[in-house]
Amino acid sequence: MKRIHSEQLYEEALKHIVGGVNSPSRSFKAVGGGAPVFMKRAQGAHFWDVDDNRYVDYLAAYGPIITGHAHPHITRAIQEAAANGTLYGTPTELEIKMAKMLKQAIPSMDKVRFVNSGTEAVMTTIRVARAYTKRNKIIKFAGCYHGHSDLVLVAAGSGPSTLGIPDSAGIPTSIAHEVITVPFNDAPALKEALDKWGDDVAAVMVEPIVGNFGMVMPKPGFLEDLCRLTRQYGALVIYDEVITAFRFHYGSAQTYAGLDNHEAIAPDLTALGKIIGGGLPIGAYGGTKEVMEQVAPLGPAYQAGTMAGNPASISAGIACLEVLQTPGVYEEMERLTIKLTNGLAGFARQYGIPLTINRIRGSFSTHFCDHPVTNYDEAQDTNGEMFAAFFRAMLNRGVNLAPSKYEAWFLTTAHTEEDIDFTLEAAEASFKEINGSACQ
Ligand code: PMP
């Protein structure tokens, strides 16, 4: 497959855009370097690049595009919103409609505030928790990614880990000192940290189902323990559901049927993003009335946004959620995903490739290793070179994955049986190609 125009554009981009990309996770640095693919059009489950190659897409723009690219219902909603003015700087009725939809799907949120990205949502939940508890420290889990604010770029998974900088430069030590990191799925380690620093801890922040060092479920009882221990010390529980909300069902991880005991695992604050914007920039956070009343103009914790709640993002988000209310959409994504993961596991076995697949409904991660992946250490201890070889082999056969061994594959409502068959054919050939190669 030739990608001459992508290579030319990359040369040009390098002259003007740092690293040639506007988000480091788009770079191919971790998969052998060179030009990333420049896409020019996307429709449904497919991309076309500037050299007119077609790809089946499993990146879904790192999650938001759960209804496939350019879904007509969402496109129409954006067009209508744009025709009525893109930004008002005043409240609109649309924001109320969307807030009600989110509250209905995520009952732990009494009050919501819209922002522009997942980073902003998470960043603000931490400020609100600090304002409420009048404490400074937060506890997070190794390998979880919570956006790029100073507060959470410590032991961060996803892009920072992919590029080997889980502890970013440029974070004042005074801020890094306020963050305590413990292993995911390890309640005794959390207890130990709380025993030591509990009186200073404002919040424990977690991806309740992890999406940033692969897809990783909490072990049974982990979230219950987390909530119980955190509250024993008077700290708040913050769920970062930027990836997980509306991913597995119409609701969030905290209400997902795969996790029991929903009352016991309800958080105080939740951060949202990605899917709720239908492909346009968005974030949101919400929580109990008492905690959210810390936020200005009611309370002393300040948070604002010129673009926040803009009619285009909100309209796209409402339209996306409407599509996801269609009966059977999650079941169909899951059905196709099972077919895909069964096929991948079978071919990996056939060609002697060590592969651990973590699947949660319509998303999954592929780890080149022969141990389970339940925490960040286990995710790091996987074969990055083999992933890179697989990534390139799949790309050359028209399958677009995230260029990182930590990222998930996302199915969308637009993927078809034909896409799965095409992908499995590419995977068989790719496993065959990398089997026996030097990277093993
Ligand atoms: N939290 C989680 C769990 C995420 O996965 C991400 C993005 N991958 C973020 C926060 C940051 O969101 P954004 O990129 O919209 O700032």
From TrEMBL:
Family: Belongs to the class-III pyridoxal-phosphate-dependent aminotransferase family. HemL subfamily.
Compartment(s): Cytoplasm
Gene Ontology terms: biological process: protoporphyrinogen IX biosynthetic process
The gene coding this protein: hemL1
Entry protein name: Glutamate-1-semialdehyde 2,1-aminomutase
Subunit structure: Homodimer.
Reactions this protein catalyses: (S)-4-amino-5-oxopentanoate = 5-aminolevulinate
Residues with the N6-(pyridoxal phosphate)lysine modification: 274
EC number of this enzyme: 5.4.3.8
Lineage top rank: taxon: Bacteria
Gene Ontology MF: a single term: pyridoxal phosphate binding
Keywords: Cytoplasm, Isomerase, Porphyrin biosynthesis, Pyridoxal phosphate
A single cellular component GO annotation: cytoplasm
Pathway: Porphyrin-containing compound metabolism; protoporphyrin-IX biosynthesis; 5-aminolevulinate from L-glutamyl-tRNA(Glu): step 2/2
Pfam families, alphabetized: Aminotran_3 (PF00202)
NCBIfam families: hemL (TIGR00713), PRK00062.1 (NF000818), PRK12389.1 (NF009055)
Names of the cofactor(s): pyridoxal 5'-phosphate
